[in-house]
Write a structure and sequence with these properties.
Distance between the termini: 116 Å
Order of helices and strands: H
Shape: rod-shaped
Helix content: over 70%
Low-confidence stretches: none
Oligomer: single chain
Structural class: mainly alpha
Number of strands: 0
Mean pLDDT: 83
Radius of gyration: 34 Å
Length: 78
């Protein structure tokens, strides 16, 4: 009877150990994946900022061109 009880306790310990080991490694993968996704999000945010700056720059150029065209039209009318 004691041998059976010892085997059951050993089997339970083995199952619990394997589950704990598997859970710890499964969490490590998700942490690494979360870090990778966070880095990708930061990268996309930087790209968005860059595109916004580029858009502002283009608007300034357009305004400058319009002013120049208006100036030229006024010069022709005189």
């Amino acid at each position: 009877m004691t041998k059976l009880l010892s085997m059951i306790v050993a089997a339970m310990f083995a199952v619990v150990s394997v589950n704990a080991f598997a859970a710890s490694h499964g969490g490590a993968k998700t942490d690494a994946k979360a870090d990778a996704m966070e880095k990708k999000g930061d990268k996309m945010e930087k790209k968005g900022d860059k595109m916004e700056k580029k858009g502002d720059k283009m608007e300034k150029k357009e305004d400058k061109m319009e002013k120049k065209a208006d100036k030229m039209e006024k010069g022709d009318k005189k």
